[in-house]
Amino acid sequence: MKNEYESSFININENEIKEKLEAIGAKLIKPKKLQKRIIFKNNTTDESRSWVRLRDEGDKITLTLKQVLDSASIHGTKEIEIIVNNFNKTAELLKNSGLYQENYQ
């Protein structure tokens, strides 16, 4: 499994940052799109702190196993991700494999 790294930026002015980036020639490659995502778990994943995420980003659909091994470490979250080609059929497959849908966003 590979490491997952995430960061958060708080108290920033989004428009100001966009203007500064545009001023130095930056171009927006991937505009914001509506995403769909479903989190699946089974009865044992709460103890192992792992879950499966199915996400439709508009231009690609990914299926990801996420596992938190150490929440205090920057290297503590691992993931395996693959690209799938059908959101609804993949969700159906996961439900029929015994996983339950924890949430849909």
Automatic annotation (TrEMBL):
Signal peptide: none
InterPro entries, A to Z: CYTH-like_dom_sf, CYTH_domain
PROSITE patterns: CYTH (PS51707)
Record domain CYTH: where: 2-105
Domain of life, source organism: Bacteria
Protein known as: CYTH domain-containing protein
